[in-house]
Amino acid sequence: MAKSYVTFEIPKDLAEKVYNGIEAVVRSGSIRKGTNEVTKAIERGTAKLVVIAEDIEPEEIVMHLPILCKEKAVPFVFVPTKQELGAACGLSVSTATVAVDNVGKAAKQVEEIVNALKPLQK
Fold first, then answer.
1. Is cis: bond before 58, omega within 30 of 0?
2. Among candidates 71, 90, 88, 68, which has minimal Cα distance to 80?
3. Could you give phi then psi for residue 76, rounded to 5 degrees?
4. Which of 9, 36, 29, 11 is nearest to 109 (CA)?
C-alpha cells in the first residue's frame, strides 16, 4: 500500500538518476541529511531539491515535507528506499530525507532531475 504522503510515483530510471545525482552532489557540493535538517533547509530557503524515502515508519515523520516544499516552491522527489538513499549519501545507515544545499559540480544532473519532476508534480 502506498504511503499517504507519497503524492506521485516516479519511474525506476528516474529513481536511479536521483541516487546518482545525490552521489555527485556529495562529491562536490553539500547536502543536509535527516528530517530535522531538511525541514530547516526548506524553511531557510537553502534547499534546491528534497529527496524523501517512501518506506518510512511511522509516516508522520516525513508527511509534512511535501506540503512544506509546495509552500516554499522547492522541488521534491520520492525514492523507494531509505537504505539506498543513505548509501547514495555515503552513509552506512539509512536516511529518511536529504536536501541538496549546494549543487557543486552536479548542477546539470540536479537540473535534469528537477526538469523530469515537473510533469509528475501536479
1. yes
2. 88
3. -140, 155
4. 29
Class of domain 12-117: alpha beta
Provide the 10 A C-beta neighbour count for residue 24. Answer: 19
Q: Distance of CA 71 to CAs 42, 43, 65, 74, Å? A: 10, 10, 10, 8
Give per-10-residue mean pLDDT for the chain (122 aa). 72 92 93 95 95 91 92 93 94 95 91 87 66
Strand locations in the chain (E): 30-33, 49-53, 76-79, 97-102
Do β-strands 76-79 and 30-33 pair in parallel, antiparallel, or remain unpaired? unpaired
Strand ranges of the sheet holding 76-79, from the earlier edge strand across to the other edge: 30-33, 97-102, 49-53, 76-79
CA distance 10 to 116: 10
